[in-house]
Amino acid sequence: MAQYPYTHGLHSLSPRAYAYLQPDGGWGWSNSGLLVGKREALLVDTLFDLALTRRMLDAMQGVLPGPIRRLVNTHHNGDHCYGNALLPDAEVIAHRACREELLRIPPGVILRLLEAFGDTPAGRYVRHCFQAFEFRDIPLRPPTTVFDETLTLYLDDDPIELRYLGPAHTRGDIIVYAPREGVVYVGDLLFHQCTPIIWEGTCAQWLSALDAILALDVEVIVPGHGPLADKDGVRQQREYLCYVWERARELYQRGVPVSEAIHQIELGPYAAWGEAERLAANVLRFYQEFAGAAHQEVDYLEAFRYMAELYFRRHP
C-alpha cells in the first residue's frame, strides 16, 4: 500500500475515492469517506458534531463534481452520523439496525452520561473523552433507506457494494466497498493502531467480519478511527481480539470476577495503542458472552466506570 500521511483533512486515495482523517483517532475523532462520480458524490459517514461536519464538507468542496446525493452511515454511533442534518437533501442509507439504534439512542446521550456520573472518576473520564465536542442542539436525522444484508448502489456505472457484517462493534455494522477503486470503508469494524471496543456483537462475529474484509480485493482500507490501513492492520486487530478473548475466558473459567479480571490482563504489545483502557469494556462484554447473555445490551454505565478505573490507574 502506498504510504499516506496521518494528517487531519482530505486525502486522495484514487482519482475518485477520498478519505477524511481526524487524528489521533481517539474517542469521537472518526474518519469519513467520499466517492465522486461525474455529476454527484456519495459520502460515507458524517462526524460527531455539526461544527466538525461543516469543516469536513468545506474541505470537500474543491473535489465535488456536484451535490452529495447519497450518504451512507456505517453504524449508529454519533461520531459517524450526528452531522447527518447538514445534508438535508441527501438520501441517508444504512443497515436497518443502525436506524433503530439511532432512534433509540439519539444525540444527547453523552450529555445524559455526564449527568448520570456527576463529579465522580467516571464523570471525569467521560469529560476527558468528549469535552471537545458540542452535543447540544444536534437535530436527529436517521437513515431514510435501510437494508438487511447487501445493497448495490451505482456511481455513474460503477458498483458500490454495501455489505452487512454485524453485529460486531454494533448491531448495524456495514462496509462500503468500491471494487474499481480498490478501496473499502469499514467504519468501526477497524480501529487501526487504537483499541477497538465491542458494544453489541460477539467476538466470533467480529472475527468473521474481519475475515470478510481480508477476503476483499483492496489496496486501501479506511478504518473508522486511526490511520489508513492495509490488510496487516486488519490482522493486528484480529490478533488483539483473540488475545483479550482468550485471557478473559481463562479468568472467567477460574471464577475471577470481571472487576478483578480487567486488572489482571496484561496488554503486552497492545498497551501502546490509544484508549488501552477500553480493555475493561471488552472484558465486560466477553464475560457477558461467556455467561450466555450476548443477546443482552451491555451496561454502558458499568463499562465507563471500569474504563475510568483503568484510565486513572495508568494516568493518576
Describe the structure.
With 316 residues, the protein is an alpha/beta fold. The chain has a single domain (9-230), classed as Metallo-beta-lactamase, Chain A, CATH 3.60.15. Helices cover 34% and strands 17% of the residues. The protein contains 9 helices and 12 strands. The strands form 2 sheets. Strands 1-2-3-4-5-6-7 form a 7-stranded mixed beta sheet. A 5-stranded mixed beta sheet has the order 8-9-10-11-12, with no helix packed on it. Strand 10 and strand 11 (183-185) form a beta hairpin. The longest helix has 23 residues, at 231-253. The relative contact order is 0.13.
Task: Describe what is shown at a glance.
The protein has 316 residues and is of the alpha/beta class.
